[in-house]
Amino acid sequence: MSEKRRTLLIVEDDPALQKQMRWAFDQYETVVANNREEAIAQLRRHEPAVVTMDLGLPPSPDDVTEGFRLLGEILALAPDTKVVVLTGQHDRENAVRAVGMGAYDFFAKPFEPELLSLTLDRALRLYDLQQDNRRLKIQQGSALSGVITRDAGMLKLCRLIERVASANVTVMLLGESGTGKEVLARGLHELSPRRNERFVAINCAAIPENLLESELFGYEKGAFTGAVKQTLGKIEVANKGTLFLDEIGDLPMPLQAKLLRFLQERVIERIGGREEIPVDVRIVCATHQDVKGLIQAGRFREDLYYRLAEIVVDIPALRDRDGDAVLLAHAFVQRFANDHGRGSMSLTDDAVQSIEQHRWPGNIRELENAIKRAVIMADGNCITADDIGLNQDDSDEGLQALNLREVREEAERRAVVRVMARVNGNVARAAEVLGISRPTLYDLMNRFGLKKEIST
Q1: What are the CA-CA distances from residue 124 to residues 14, 50, 64 (Å)?
Q2: Is the pLDDT of residue 371 over 90?
Q3: Is the confidence at residue 181, as pLDDT, over 90?
Q4: Is pLDDT at 395 greater than 60 in this prediction?
Q5: Strand bridging mode 7-11 / 29-33
Q6: Per residue in 62-93, pLDDT tens?
Q7: Nearest 5°: phi and psi at 171?
Q8: pLDDT tier at 397 (50, 70, 90 boundaries)?
Q9: d(CA 320, CA 324)
Q10: Rounded to the nearest 5 degrees, what angle is found at the Cα of 109, between the Cα atoms of 104 and 111?
């Protein structure tokens, strides 16, 4: 099977030149955009490593304003993407300006396809090298080393965190309680250019409403009874760094308006003060609540949501991460055994089975607490299901699903049943849908004791 072609985004409003470029660069999977809005949509959809773009774009093709606006947005949304700018023959000033903003290179029109192809190839190689270096840093135990997973969805999420960390955009982390939102928020900070500045976290649900405003924005001496000195708020303390607003869904409406003003103006006023104080801080927020449901219920401002959710990261629950519960459990056993001087400890088979069967409504936090308690309470060096003490009433499958032959046969049986029902017992049609011959289908039906008149 041939290797999947890499994606090249071509931003060009001239249909003839679009066609020429698609023909010249047929080694890529080319996608095109005619204007800035289409380019951003294609960027989000395809995440191309390399982009070529004309600076003169609609609605004013003779002006470079729209082109530079698009260049800035691409570099903000996908800072590792390599942008090759195409300019007029005598437009060196704008070409240099584009490179100064962060474009990889520039070419004057009309260009030689062979030369531009070499530049695109070098840009792609540089992009791949940077991605490999970033993955290597992660594997060597940097910012996301605390994320223990083999689940494909979580690995993809970690790659997303790596990509957006260097972009100065607000990030909203969504997930159930205990899924590791603060771990990922710290990872965003540590992978960002702000890593040497402060990471400041505040839980909006843990502080009484009448105190939360002063915690966030600070206050001047004498602003209220007990304000005996000037005190900086969390936003100001996090200046140049990252502010993590946990449980943002619990932020009171009056403070939502004040936070929105800060996000728009990037200045704050302390309580009791009149001075506007500029603050440069990256906002990362998190919540376990359905924010769009809160908006519909009138409990969360829609305009604030769009300011906070430039990038949204959905964190899967532990029960949806295949194999991760046991993987994490082994790691927690080792950690807590070392912390409590218990020596070498391990999980018994029944303990592993109980961990696999449990639904973990409290996610990683619940698992961590259960293993910590079991390490402390276990009589010997082996941790049993009784030591963990999980309620198995909510389990829906056990170790019966670990035998590959049984898994395969059950999957085949269910597929045959569903397809035969869908085609109303037509064996020829069912064999076609299943991609097998009719004799093979008859063999499967006989093996599973199924009759032609199958129903679900």
Answers
A1: 25, 6, 26
A2: yes
A3: yes
A4: no
A5: parallel
A6: 888 999 999 999 988 888 899 999 987 677 88
A7: -125, 135
A8: very low
A9: 9
A10: 75
What pLDDT is recorded for position 453? Answer: 46
Rounded to 5 degrees, what are φ and ψ at 228? -85, -10
Helix H, strand E, coil C: the string for the chain is: CCCCCCEEEEECCCHHHHHHHHHHCCCCEEEEECCHHHHHHHHHHHCCCEEEEECCCCCCCCCCHHHHHHHHHHHHHCCCCEEEEEECCCCHHHHHHHHHHCCCEEEECCCCHHHHHHHHHHHHHHHHHHHHHHHHHHHCCCCCCCCCCCCHHHHHHHHHHHHHHCCCCCEEEECCCCCCHHHHHHHHHHCCCCCCCCEEEEECCCCCHHHHHHHHHCECCCCCCCCCCCECCHHHHCCCCEEEEECHHHCCHHHHHHHHHHHHHCEECCECCCCCEECCCEEEEEECCCHHHHHHCCCCCHHHHHHHCCEEEECCCHHHCCCHHHHHHHHHHHHHHHHCCCCCCEECHHHHHHHHHCCCCCHHHHHHHHHHHHHHHCCCCEECHHHHCCCHHHCCCCHHHHCHHHHHHHHHHHHHHHHHHHCCCCHHHHHHHHCCCHHHHHHHHHHCCCCCCCCC
Sheet containing strand 242-246, edge to edge, reads 199-203, 242-246, 282-287, 171-174, 311-314
- Per-residue pLDDT of 373-392, as tens digits, reads 999 999 888 999 999 988 75
Give residue 400's pLDDT band: very low, low, confident or very high (50, 70, 90): very low
- At residue 153, φ and ψ (nearest 5 deg) are -65, -45
Q: Is the pLDDT of residue 423 over 80?
A: no
- Mean pLDDT score of the chain, rounded to an integer? 87
Share of the chain above pLDDT 90, in %: 51
Rounded Cα–Cα distance for residues 392 and 73 (Å):
50
Alpha-carbon span 150 to 156, nearest angstrom: 10
